[in-house]
Every structure is written in C-alpha cells, then in structure tokens.
Amino acid sequence: MKRSFLIVFTLFLATSIFANDFIGKFLKECVETDRPVSNVNIGNTMLNKMAANTSDEELKATFRELTSIRIITTESKSDSKYYFEKAKQLISSDFTDYLEVVSVNERRSKINILMKKIDEKNQDLILIALDDDNKLTIITVSGNIDFNSISKLSSSLRESNTEEPVSENETDKGN
Amino acid sequence: MNIERIHILLEKYWNCETSVSEEQELQEFYNFGDVPDDLQQLVPMFSYKQDQHAIALSDDFEKKLETSIRKADRKKQYITIKIFEPFLRIAASIILIAGIGVSVYFFARQNNQVFAETYNDPGAALEQATSALEKLSMALQTTEEASLKSLEQLDNLDLDWSEIDSLSSEIPLYNPDSNNNIESETL
Fold first, then answer.
1. Is residue B97 included in any domain, yes or no?
2. Beta carbons of A43 and B115 less than 8 Å apart
3. Comparing B56 with A122, which gets the higher pLDDT?
4. For A19, which residue in chain B has the nearest alpha carbon?
5. Which of A73, A119, A133, B27 ranks highest by number of CB atoms within 10 Å?
6. Which residue in A129, A143, A137 sits closest to A66, CA to CA?
C-alpha cells in the first residue's frame, strides 16, 4: 500500500513537471501522425552559444535574456487551419492562466499572442499565427521578454541582411 | 581453649544468653581452634560469618556495575523505539516524500527545460531562432498597425464623444435586488 502510494505520488510529480509546457502538450495531445508538423527546440545552452556567435548586438542581448524558444510549423493549408483551432482550444482548456495580450483576426491573417508572468524576470509567451499563405506558426518563448526590443528586431534583421551585399560590392571595387 | 568452657558457652548460646565477646570466642574456636569430633557438626554455622566477611568486591566490580547499568538503559531505549516504530516509519516516509517533492519542485522551477535540443550546431539553430523572433516581431508590428488602424477608423467616424459620455449618465441603473420598476438617475 505504502509502496504503491509512493510510486503514484512520484509519477504525479513527474507528470506535473512535464505537463506545463504548451508545445509539449500540443505535440502530445493535438498532433496526429497523418498530419505531421515540424518542431524545433532551442534551449538555454544553445541560446547562449548563439549569443556568443552572433555579431548583432541587439540579437545578442535578446538571446541572452531568453531561456528557450520552441517552434511548431506546418506547410499544409488544411492542417494549418485544423491545428490553429486545436491550439486555441488547448489554450482555452489547459492554459487559462495565460492572458491574451494581442489578438488580430483579419481575412488573411490571424494572430494570437498570450503571455504569463512567472516573476519579474521570467515570462512565458505563446504566439499562434496563421499567415497570408495559411501557414501555421506556433512559437513559445520563455525568459525575460522585452516587447520593445523584439518588435524592433525584424527591422534590424532586415537592415543587416540588406547591408551585406553592399559591403561585398565595395570589396570588389577595392580590388 | 578449654572444652568445658566451650560447652558452657554453647549452652548459653542456645539459650541466647551469650554476649558479643563470648560469641566471638566461639567463632574463634570453630575457625582457628582444634574442634573435637562431637562438636564438628556446628563448624558450618560458626564459620558462615567468617566466610561472608571474606567475600570482597573484585577489582573490576565498578566496571561490571557500569556495564550492567548501560545494558539496562539500552533495553529501555529499545523498548521505547519498538513502541513508536510504526509512527517513526510513517514520519520518515512523509519526510522523504516531502523532501523529494520540494527538491523536484525547486529543480524544475530553476531549470524548466524538459525537451531535447533540436540542433547541436549554433549556426543552424541561429537561423531558426532568428526566423522565429522575426515572425514574433512582425506579429507584434502587425497588431500595432491593426490597433492604429482601428483607432484611425474610429477617428474617421467623427463621433461626438461628449454626447456619448452624456448618454451613459441617462441610462437607467440596473438594480438586481429590486422587484419594482427601476428609476432612472440623472447626474
């Protein structure tokens, strides 16, 4: 009796740890074998390595503040719409402690951003997006999330991408 | 010693009339004297005291005493432990489970990473991470634009906000407790 109680309690503890993550739960409960998805997981160790490797200072600072980035994508349009609804259902049933920060429901794109504050330097963010091409992207980000710096990232990344070809031409001219 | 004297002393001894010194005389006679055959049967009686006086404590008496006292104390401890053994087991189990639970909770809180990393190479991971953050950034910008657009549309409606504010003051207040008609309240 005591042994069985101890085993049940330990299993309960284990499942309580593993069940908290949205992506993990989504993969476990919503994803079907005949509707495959792509999953990428980047943890704290890899984020620190990336921060050390990148030259972009803003990106470096962002990576250092985050603890994990997890991504689910799917290319199929029908699967995207199916999983988009599944994701919303999962959030409304099991992640009620997350607050909806932003919600956009347009004809061509649907975006839901939810957030949970764990403490002063730790937040969890869930992004569920259906873009113009009806491709689903689910991203969860954990860590010290600064919306201002993240929202500026796309423009700085675009600038860094456009700068590189100019520098190559200059080197050619120099030669 | 005179045998007649011994007989007289014995007679007095059986009548409980002997003094201490006379009894000592009899003891000395039976322990150290030449006892005749007819008086041999009384030798054990008078030598008993001498034998008992000869008994002395051994050199290790104190050690033996301490050992036996400790054994007695240990027996008492074992008895106490045996009585509380079931409760001790239950308490130990509870403490063990609570300790495991608390340590697992703090460990999980500190390092809440329970997934396997997809990439080993930072270069490959960088592309995916950058793409994800870019999408997040674009989503935030999209929502910001949508909010601004909504505000612009509201501005374009050219509403009289002061009129709307005044309307809210004339709307009757709902009183769930009252069964009668509700009276409007003007400010």
1. no
2. yes
3. A122
4. B114
5. A73
6. A143
Q: Which of A67, A72, A82, A66 is nearest to A26 (CA)?
A: A72
What residues in chain B have their Cβ under 8 A from chain A's Cβ atoms?
93, 97, 100-101, 104, 108, 112-119, 122-123, 125-126, 128-130, 132-144, 146
Q: Is residue B141 part of a domain?
A: no
Edge-to-edge order in the sheet of strand A110-119: A38-42, A66-74, A136-143, A122-130, A110-119, A99-105
Distance CA A48, CA B173 (A): 58
Residues of chain A positioned with their CB less than 8 A from the CB of B93 = 2, 6
Six-digit token pair at A55? 């030259």
- Here the ipTM equals 0.76
| B175 occurs within a structural domain | no
Domain that holds residue B50: 3-54
How far is it, in rounded angstroms, from Cα A35 to Cα A73? 11
Q: Which residues of A touch B112 (CB under 8 A)?
A: 20-21, 67, 142
Distance CA B109, CA A81 (A): 34
Pair A125, A69: CB distance under 8 Å: no
Looking at beta carbons, which residues of chain B come within 8 Å of A102? Answer: 139-140, 143
Name chain B contacts of A69, Cβ cutoff 8 Å. Answer: 128-129, 132-133
pTM metric for this prediction: 0.57
| pLDDT tens per residue, range B65-123 | 988 888 887 777 776 667 778 888 889 989 998 988 888 777 665 555 578 888 888 88
In a domain, B19, yes or no: yes
3-state secondary structure chain B: CCHHHHHHHHHHHHCCCCCHHHHHHHHHHHHHCCCCHHHHHHHHHHHHHHHHHHCCCCCCHHHHHHHHHHHHHHHHHHHHHHHHHHHHHHHHHHHHHHHHHHHHHHHHHHCCCCCCCCCCCHHHHHHHHHHHHHHHHHHHHHHHHHHHHHHHHHHHCCCCHHHHHHHHHHCCCCCCCCCCCCCCCCC
Q: Is A9 on the interface with B (CB under 8 A)?
A: yes
The domain total for chain B is: 1
